[in-house]
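Propose amino acids for all 184 sites.
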């Protein structure tokens, strides 16, 4: 099934909606996204517990993890009449921007609004100590948080948390794109 996150349907915005298509085979376009067609497995879920709009989502094992700026939810395929089960994982974490989560070593590595952390779909752990966290978030240009992203360099087994910084050590302080990366 394909998933669509944070939708506008017609003129109505559904910032916390996940719409899922009918089941299809790999590399094929689903034949339906209609929740009203009872002969298909398409539908939608509104994450009414989520306080802020969906920012992004990514698979983690057999689950799909949905991120807002301040919450994380897990979506699991269960089949039957409900198809998917959702539950809140964290109410104190999220993502700073889209493309700020990558999977490595069966974990998600996330660039949040006030922490860099990883989780296995059940428990999370900060991977930035206080000194590193203070440096990153003290110099991060929050007005440019929409340029932040995370990249997994598999060849070097490194994860880059990229952001726009104005600190005194930055070679290009007036950049309007990412000019610094925290490397894990």
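Proposal:
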């Amino acid at each position: 099934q394909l998933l669509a996150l944070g939708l506008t349907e017609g003129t109505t915005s559904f910032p916390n909606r996940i719409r899922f298509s009918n089941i299809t085979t790999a590399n094929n376009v689903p034949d339906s996204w209609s929740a009203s067609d009872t002969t298909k497995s398409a539908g939608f879920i509104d994450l009414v517990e989520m306080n802020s709009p969906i920012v992004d989502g990514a698979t983690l094992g057999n689950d799909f993890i949905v991120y807002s700026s301040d919450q994380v939810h897990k979506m699991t395929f269960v089949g039957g009449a409900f198809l998917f089960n959702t539950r809140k994982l964290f109410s104190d974490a999220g993502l700073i921007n889209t493309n700020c989560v990558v999977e490595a070593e069966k974990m998600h590595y996330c660039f949040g609004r006030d922490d860099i952390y990883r989780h296995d779909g059940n428990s999370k752990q900060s991977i930035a100590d206080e000194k590193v966290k203070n440096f990153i978030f003290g110099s991060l240009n929050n007005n440019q948080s929409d340029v932040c992203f995370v990249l997994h360099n598999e060849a070097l087994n490194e994860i880059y948390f990229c952001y726009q910084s104005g600190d005194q050590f930055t070679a290009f302080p007036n950049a309007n794109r990412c000019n610094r990366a925290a490397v894990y």
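Residues 63 and 76 are 5 Å apart (CA to CA). The two ends are 33 Å apart (CA to CA).
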